[in-house]
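Continued from yesterday's entry.
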Amino acid sequence: MRVFVTGATGFIGSAIVRELLDAGHQVLGLARSDAAAASLAAAGAEVHRGSLEDFESLAAGARACGGVIHTAFIHDFSNYAPAAEKDRRAIQTLGTTLAGSDRPFIVTSGTLLVERQGPLATEEEAPNPSFPRKSEEAALAVAARGVRVAVVRLPPSVHGDGDHGFVPALIAIARQKGVSAYVGDGFNRWPAVHRLDAAHLYRLVLEKGSAGAKYHGVADEGVPFRDIAGVIGRRLNVPVVARSPQEAADHFGWLAHFVGIDCPASSAQTQERLGWRPTQPGLIPDLDRPSYFDI
């Protein structure tokens, strides 16, 4: 299948591109810069110039392919609402182009968005309507127009070489502050997945996923945040300390909202439906390597 991938040169998207190519698919990757275009060409993918705000380029990419994987998102937490709106409009544009064609469309969301009802967030649960990101609502809207859309929810930590998400931000804060901190007792839990396991899941959803289904890219159901802080402290040789919820904002800045969240999630249904089995290292052994701490 020829697959249009947005975010194709990103941390997760580049792993998806490699996974698809190695499985015999063709990839048309969205590139907004010369550097991104060169990276895609070097990987063996076709280049499609454009951006999330260029709706004509998004529609053209979708028209040219037998399936679409949408991973691009502008991760600007200081300007999150506009970023979420651009994502919603991109999904709307891609979905409109695919309507009535039975071509698969995979939309990316997050387990943090789930309104958890039980011990673990499951695939059946709905997204929290108060969260600004509306990826799943946008997917539902295009599904109503006859689009064969599925959602992949990723956990707050997608880890591996090249990670530039929450965990590297925590490492940078620990370096700056001279301590590695957690909030309260630190027993709140984060789910996690290795980027290569996540990439494999996207391919399985593309090839075998059901229309309207939600899938969880979760390998570690819930890693205690205290364990994450402990590895960071040991690797940086700084104290590991507790911060109260009131002190968290000053210590963690924009990350304060996330570090205290208890958000364990399950992928049991995803694994049963697709036969997906994570095989890469979990978050703690992956984090406990020198490469995460190289400056």
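--- second protein ---
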Amino acid sequence: MKRLDGKVAIVTGAGSGIGEATARLMAREGASVVVADLDQAEAERVAAELDAAVHVEVDVSDEESVERMIETAVLSFGRLDVLHNNATDSSLNAVDTDITTLDMSVFDRLVAVNLKGQFLGCKHAIPVMLAGGGGSIVNTASIDGFVGRGVRAAYGASKAGVVLLTKSVASQYGTRGIRCNAVAPGLTLTPGAVNNASEEYVETSLRNYPMPRLCTPHDVAKAVVFLASDDASYVNAATLMVDGGATVYMANARLHGTGEATS
């Protein structure tokens, strides 16, 4: 028996990267999947390649759009068991640098997509899940929600909010059969990251991870499917770090063959 047999799942940001990998893995594990993305063409592409799937265009920062997404799941498959709140906006990373010079429209956009979008997903999925006897929500946070990195303060603040949102949903609805957990990836080799990162940046990043490679979208997808499935039936309010240990590791130059330790 597959881990998500008979389940209906929504994955936001499913047109690429972590969302696409998760939608594909959920389908392989037996779920009927609503492939939701701001880019309708990409959502349609992914859904067309899955056995039981529909696509929907969604702007997760817009409440009416999120409501239509939830309705699509119910109209298409009759219920909703799993929501992966994954859509995020990383397009503004290059300008999310110094707090004192940050254009507040950047902050507003990041919070609207990364935090408000997940809040709205929970708000409208929970009643449908309750009607069906329960469900599982998995939010995509980030290691940036746990550590200060000198840049990306707005992004990090939005992702820290996701961690607290996860705990709040779990504490409010766990007794009614809805589990809510999160994953917190580090640098993940999504198509966007690969296309926009130099070879030097990737090599430098690898030195900060105590692993022989960097994370792939499929690595994150496997963690999401675990949390969504009954294998994690007593896991609630947790944030699973999918970061190769980066958040508990300080790279030491001696480990990289320089012969000099760093302070």
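Residues 138 and 184 are 11 Å apart (CA to CA). Confidence is low (pLDDT under 50) at residues 253-263. Will compare against the first tomorrow.
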